[in-house]
Amino acid sequence: MATTSDIKKGLCIKFNHDIYKVIEFLHVKPGKGPAFVRTKLKSVTTGKILDNTFSAGHKIEDVRVETHKFQYLYPEGDTYHFMNTEDYNQITLQKSVLDAPDLMKEGEVVTVLINTEDNMPLSVEMPSHVILEITHTEPGVKGNTATNATKPATVETGARINVPLFINEGDKIKIDTEKGAYTERIKE
Asked: What's the CA gap between 55 and 102, in Å, rounded?
């Protein structure tokens, strides 16, 4: 058993007869009244996101997990195929379990959290940043640079990202996988 002081991003807990992964949390100590922890939980079975508040010191049942490196192979409808980089066993996961499936390139190595009780995969953690190539974007219009102007662009995985006007087709960009946002252009 853990308490609210053990809550951290990525922790898997049993809550409401399901397993949830903590995706955001905030410890709050108001001037008046008891402290509490505000959390945003994502169900690892359905992908549903839930906001919940735990009072300070509340007991939570954590799920023991192991992390393994898996290589992303290919998508098949809403099913994604991965291969363990150590023993080459393959697993399939549903799209709802993935945090940013539209930013995953074939061959990408990700971390899969596996429940130690039943060896079932719980969730996939992407690297903090990925580097993808722009496959389509409109040319930037000169004179539109008074503010941080952006334009939509499509990357090689099919995801749409807003990028600065100076980015062109064929450029490689670094994308923050947590926010799904442009970070910087990569020079070869």
From this structure: 36
